[in-house]
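Pasting as-is:
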Amino acid sequence: MSESYIPRSLETVVQKAVREFPAVVLVGPRQSGKTTLLRHLYGRQFLVVSLEPPDVRLAALNDPRGFLTLYPPPVIFDEIQYAPVLLPYIKEQIDLHRDRAGQSLLTGSQNLLLMQQVTESLAGRAAVLKLLPMSLWEINHHPQGIFPWESGRTAGLSDPPASQIWQQILQGFYPEIVSNPDRDARLWQSSYVQTYLERDIRNLRAIGDLTLFQTFLRALAARSAQILNLSELCRDVGVAVSTAKDWISILEASFQIFILRPYYANIGKRLVKSPKVYFVDTGLLCYLVGLRDVEHAAAGPMGGAIFENLVVAELLKRYTHRGEEPALYYWRTAAGSEVDVVIETQDRLIPLEIKQSETPRPEMARGIISFQTDFGDKAGQGYVIHPGKMTLPLGKGVMTLPLANL
């Protein structure tokens, strides 16, 4: 293992998939560590072929069958979205030895088109896994942790001071920044946004005005953790609703944002139906809204929304890195009762409130108690997640939960 490599929670899931499937497709945003993870696990056993260089890509596009003859299994094809023409021929290759697992490992950064092509070509032959930026568990070298509602315990990582949490929020969770904390995170984020705009977005969908799209992206960031009023957003930016929906779908498909949808249940109340939007990486979120230092990020008007974004992104990453599709929702009634996150497990609904205050108070549990009243036995223990160190009851069935113990 290289000195800078930080173990990822997804490693055990990848290893299991490689033992069971002929092909494994690892998708996620650029720079989330896909290639690094596969090289770490299989770099000595598999040939690694990047399809990003123009000459390699051209060879694959001109003669796919001949190209695959040059690189027989076991092989890692990095950035497969540059040569999706290979997929039917990889299927053909797999079908010659259908019972042989771990033939081809593929990585890709663009979920929208890539997944459609993988589904068409490798249905039943490939496991599809997602790697997002790093979680706090991974950063703290605790990649196989479990949640308190699964273990019944609230002990967790060491309690970092609030300033350290906010420094991490500003830096973000991409491996390159985590592994090189002295690097200028803002410069990296600026480059990332520009690269993402110029390459991935143009490849996914024709966007005529990149400047307008960047304005839209910043306006969306300013609405993080809020219920999305699409009409208001479109009016402020000056784009049609249909265009905004298209751009949001692109951002979601390319792993830049996460849409938290409301939890529906027939409880005789009309629920709010609009989604909430969160950014997968808090560093990029802070960059887009112009936050440069811990003091302004934590004490500014977006402090609560950014801390909530951090927690939702943590939940998203941890479930995703276990190979699971996160069953995350929010709950709000027309009367105003609200729970920030509802986690749907096999047998329970876990309500979470997220508060930036380090001093939890009983009134913070009001929404959770309302949720538990409406859902009865289906609702499990509720938690108020905060950046402090206190673990204490806030009423029957509600506990405070420090972020470090999440």
